[in-house]
Amino acid sequence: MTAISDLDIFARVARTANMSAAGREMGLSPAVVSKRISLLEERLGARLFQRTTRHLTLTETGEGYFKRVVDILSLIEEAEDFVSRRNTRPRGVLKVTAPTAFSRLHIAPYLAEFLLKFPEVEVEMHLTDNFVDIIRDGFDVAIRIGELRDSSLVARKLAPENRVMCASPKYLADAGMPKSLTDLETHNCLLAGAQDVWRLEGPDGQVQVRVKGNIRSNSAEFIGDALTAGLGIALRSTWEVAAQLKSGELVVVLPKYRGSSAVGIFAVYPCREFMPNKVNVFIEYLAELYGRELYWEKDKLAAKSANGFAAKSEIATAPSCSTPPKLDGKIAAEKAASPARKSGNGKAARQSNGG
Asked: Distance (Å, rounded) from C-alpha 158 to C-alpha 292?
């Protein structure tokens, strides 16, 4: 029978695609890791990796083996946590993946308080605006901004994702203030990822507007910089632009329209019966931080119109997280104090870069 330690070594090599990196994680030399992998392949009678001088990739057999090994290691972690969770504080390395700008603005400033409450937890943050396979890459939880889609993962809604169309006073002085959605056809719209269509909600309900522009990026921060530089109009999240709207650096455009309410901020994690305490307390901390009131929308946002007069645009306050709404009719969002539950028909948020 294969030793659990060999399964752990194999999983780490598969995730990092590098024996030296896997060895550093486990405190082993590359030679020891290579020997253990070779012995594992010999024991199984199958090649798990294709090796070249520059690359290490899983074979088809290795891919299938890896998926099953990940499940085995997760069950072992759950079993150990089940035994110890009543007698120990949350502990261990918490691996989190999250969008870059959101992490910088609304996670990093609060980590000191979180780690003060849970000093035995170590946080490893992976920042990216791209979708990440959290099971394959070994993450405990992902913070995702987007809509829900069918998945074997579990999604917990942390907060609504409110989005507004906005631009800099400089851009509007040059290009003019749009009076209607059709006016957007003559404006330069800054595009985030594949965001060619803006899904909006207004006085007449939901509407989709096809937009175009000369700047596109998968980076929320890049689009934000282009926006404040006066290069166009963008549909942005209030968590990202609230400070600029309050200062007048940005102006709300067509304030009767907002981004689709189907978009939200979610914590997504593997469907496990026994979720490790380190994951549970992190999700609860963020739910408490964002859920009761969106602090970035606490004050009214002043938006200067084209003729220089100030117009007030109040951003709706988020509902209490003590009674969160149902998600897409299929997942009931958990109450803030409730433990995570397994959901076979769960939904996971498709991550976007805030656009």
From this structure: 10
Does the pLDDT value for residue 118 go beyond 90?
A: yes
- Region class of 315: left (phi > 0), else alpha (psi between -120 and 50), else beta: beta
Cα torsion 63, 66, 71, 75 to 10°: value is 180
| Residue 220 pLDDT | 84
Domain span including residue 18: 4-83
Residue ending a domain, among 60, 83, 106, is 83
209 close to 181: Cβ distance less than 8 angstroms: yes
Verify that 252 and 198 share a domain, yes or no.
Answer: yes
What is the reported pTM? 0.63
Tokens at 342, concatenated: 């397994």
CA-nearest of 193, 299, 186 to 233 is 186
How far apart, in Å, are the Cα atoms of 1 and each of 5, 32, 69, 70, 193?
A: 12, 20, 14, 17, 47
Q: How many CB atoms lie within 10 A of CB 5?
A: 11
For residue 227, give every residue at least 6 positions away whose Cβ sits within 8 Å of its Cβ, in sequence order, or none: 166, 167, 168, 190, 234, 236, 241, 250
Q: Nearest 5 degrees, angle CA 168-CA 172-CA 177?
A: 125
- Return the ∠ at Cα 240 (arms to 157 and 347), rounded to 5°: 20
pLDDT tens-digit series, residues 244-290: 999 999 999 999 999 988 889 999 988 666 678 899 899 999 999 99
Structure tokens at 61: 């057999």
75 vs 191, more confident: 191
Would you say residue 212 lies in a domain? yes
* 63 and 98 belong to one structural domain: no
Distance CA 95, CA 182 (A): 45
Does position 48 have pLDDT exceeding 60, yes or no?
A: yes
Q: Is residue 153 part of a domain?
A: yes
Give the residue ranges of DSSP H helices in 292-332. none
List the CATH number of the domain containing 46.
1.10.10.10
**How many structural domains are present in the chain?**
3
Domain end marker among 36, 64, 83: 83
Angstrom CA distances, 302 to 149, 152, 242, 250, 310, stand at 35, 42, 10, 10, 6
